[in-house]
Amino acid sequence: MYTLISVLVVTVFFLSAAIRILNEYERGVIFRLGRVIQAKGPGLIILIPVVDKMVKVSMRLSYRHGRRPPGRHQHGQCLCKGECRHLF
């Protein structure tokens, strides 16, 4: 009886460590023993729990205001008038 319960507990922990879910705007980079294996897209990702590691990368664009006051600013070769905005 105790053996069955312990096997079920280990199986649940194994599956929770092996399954990852990525959103539409995320990608996962899979590392196996420190080396890059591949990048996987959104959806259900299955990993080998002890060997694989996944790092989530957000593909969303980040938009923020610049810290400079409105006026004339030079960014490289471009001269901008108005408020600075950065798109990453």
Write up what this structure looks like.
The chain is of the alpha+beta class. It is built from one helix and nine strands; from the N terminus they run H-E-E-E-E-E-E-E-E-E. The protein has one helix at 2-18; strands spanning 19-22, 26-32, 35-40, 43-46, 52-58, 63-65, 71-75, 78-82, 85-87. It has a three-stranded antiparallel β-sheet with strand order 3-2-5, with no helix packed on it. A two-stranded antiparallel ribbon has the order 1-4. Strand 7 and strand 8 form a beta hairpin. The longest helix has 17 residues, at 2-18.
Question: Can you give me a brief rundown of this structure?
Answer:
This protein has one helix spanning 2-18, and strands at residues 19-22, 26-32, 35-40, 43-46, 52-58, 63-65, 71-75, 78-82, 85-87.
Give the helices and strands, then pairings.
Blueprint (H helix, E strand, L loop, with lengths): L1 H17 E4 L3 E7 L2 E6 L2 E4 L5 E7 L4 E3 L5 E5 L2 E5 L2 E3 L1
Antiparallel strand pairs: 1-4, 2-3, 2-5, 6-9, 7-8
Structural class based on helices, strands and sheet pairing: alpha+beta
Cα gyration radius (Å): 23 Å
Percent helix, as a range, is 10-25%
Give the uncertain stretches in residue-range form: none
User: Helix and strand string, N-terminal first?
Assistant: HEEEEEEEEE
Question: Strand portion, in percent?
Answer: over 45%
For the biggest β-sheet, the strand order reads: 3-2-5
Q: What is the arithmetic mean of pLDDT?
A: 81
First-last Cα distance: 56 Å
Tally of contiguous helical segments: 1
